[in-house]
Amino acid sequence: MRDDELRLELQIPALRRYAWALTRHDDDADDLVQDCLERALARSATRRGDGSLRAWLFSILHNVFISGRRKALLRRMQALDEVSEPVVSGGQEDRVAMNEMLAALETLPEDQRAVLLLVGVEDFSYAEAATALDVPIGTVMSRLSRGRERLRQALEGQAQTRLKVVR
Amino acid sequence: MSDSIHPIEEDELQAYVDGRLSPERRAAVENHLARHPEVAARIESYVTHRQQLREVLRFKAEEPIPPRLRIAALARRRRVDARRWLMYAASVAVAVIVGGAAGWAGRGAFDGGERHWADLAAYALGAHRVFVADARRPVEVRADAEDQLVRWLSSRIGRPIAVPDLRSASLRFMGGRLLATPDGPAAQLMYDDAAGTRVTVFLQADPRPNPIGAGGIRQVSIDGIGSLNWSDERFTYIVSAALDPGRLDAVGRLVRSQVTTDGGRP
Asked: Is residue B258 a contact partner of residue B165, using CB atoms and an 8 Å limit?
């Protein structure tokens, strides 16, 4: 495999993780990644300069996600697709905790969710995240701050509900 | 201590959560948190949730890459597609040479005008593919010599042309070249955006009547490259790019609004 193709291949697991977190659907996520990689391969000769490869790749993925979103939503409304289950190593409690986290994440507006994922999970710098999402760094920081607070409130709300049920 | 000189702001608290602070600033933040327990509780939640989210999603990044996503497979499919495309283009070219009015009329599928559109679209898409893939010399005359380019192309094409300004669609003019089509000279203008996507605008002075009626726009797509085709009384225009239909449509409208004499209303 050529050097640039290898560098793309190394990004695939992270792209799949991000796409899955956005779509919560195994096939939709991999479709997104495939679409992203095909475009990246088509454009690789024309990619300008030495900026972050993954910021560039994730920006393609994000754009494909945005433009495909309405199609996927329509299909899901028609076919009542279930969301895909995460793979859990532990037992029942771990599965509950995982689903709570994913459900809480789902309550965030997409903008905030994207920043939380890129910065908190994919280890993007704030500048890389700004590039990938095509927004100023200030916007990244405010979405990060609001997103984290919203997630915290969603999780604490779930915890409160659990306490009520137990009582 | 430190925070009176440089107060702790929300951005730094977030950077603390992400482990992106210098040792001095981290110490300052920890100091601040020690003295503000309610802030500390909030920040500690963020740190915990960040870790939990990573744990929840870790399984996905640890999965083996599915065969259809492997770069080798995608690259192979692209080569197959390119070959198929060349065969298609070759077959169109052969049809043009071998066909002639009698042959096509016999097929019943196209009249002379339709065939012309199909040929031109295939030609422009072919030229698009060939030149956007060129890393070092995608255009013959660059944008910094735009006046020269416009004079040259206008003279060869036989009508004055103007370079559409597509900056409001985030497209930067790169330059252009003269193309030699079976029907004579045509212009190819090339643009790109910050992501490296390239768009070409093909222009030919075309005396034939527009088969789909004045102002009609036709969309054609071959192997992921879309093109919008239309003509006015002066030129035939073909805007080509590997863009989703929505964005291609927006670019096409922008070009139309600048070149058609009636303001380009659909």
From this structure: yes
The verdict on A124 touching B (C-beta cutoff 8 Å) is no
Q: What is the rounded CA–CA span in Å between residue B101 and residue B99? A: 7
SS3 at position B260: coil
| B42-82: pLDDT as tens digits | 999 999 999 999 999 999 999 999 999 999 989 888 777 77
For B192, list phi and psi in degrees, rounded to 5.
-140, 165
Residues B253 and B264: their CA atoms lie apart, in Å, by 7
Q: Is the dihedral of CA B147, B153, B157, B162 positive or negative?
A: negative
Q: How confident is the model at residue A107 (pLDDT cuts 50, 70, 90)?
A: very high
Is A61 near chain B, with CB under 8 Å?
Answer: no
Whether B107 has a pLDDT exceeding 90, the answer reads: no
Contact residues, B window 98-157, toward A, CB-based 8 Å cutoff: 132-135, 138
For B120, counting Cβ atoms within 10 Å of its Cβ (0-12 exposed, 13-18 middle, 19+ buried), the class is buried
* Residue B8: band (very low, low, confident or very high) from pLDDT cuts 50, 70, 90: low
Inter-residue contact A111 to A143 (CB < 8 Å): yes
- Strand, helix or coil at B118? helix
Nearest partner of A153 among B47, B33, B42, B37, judged by Cα: B42
Q: Would you give the DSSP letter of residue A119?
A: I
User: How confident is the model over B156-169, as a mean pLDDT?
Assistant: 93
Q: Which two tokens stand for residue B129?
A: 């593919």
A52 in reach of chain B (CB within 8 A): no
Which residue, A49, A51, A57, is CA-closest to A13? A57
The amino acid at residue A145 is: S
Q: Please check whether residue B254 is in contact with residue B239, taking contact to mean a CB–CB distance below 8 angstroms.
A: no
Rounded CA separation B130/B126 (Å) = 6
Nearest chain A residue (CA) to B52: A101
| E strands in A71-160 | none
Reported as a pLDDT band with limits 50, 70 and 90, residue A17 is very high
A80 phi and psi angles, rounded to 5 deg: 50, 50
pLDDT digits (tens, 9 = 90+) for A120-147: 999 999 999 999 999 999 999 999 999 9
Closest chain B residue to the Cα of A41, Cα to Cα: B75
* C-beta atoms of B69 and A12 within 8 A: yes
Kindly report the average pLDDT of chain B as a whole number.
82
Q: What's the Cα-to-Cα distance from A8 to each of A14, A42, A115, A138, rounded to whole Å?
A: 11, 13, 22, 29
Write phi, then psi, for B263 (nearest 5 degrees).
85, 0
User: Which of A56, A119, A156 minimises the CB distance to B18?
Assistant: A119
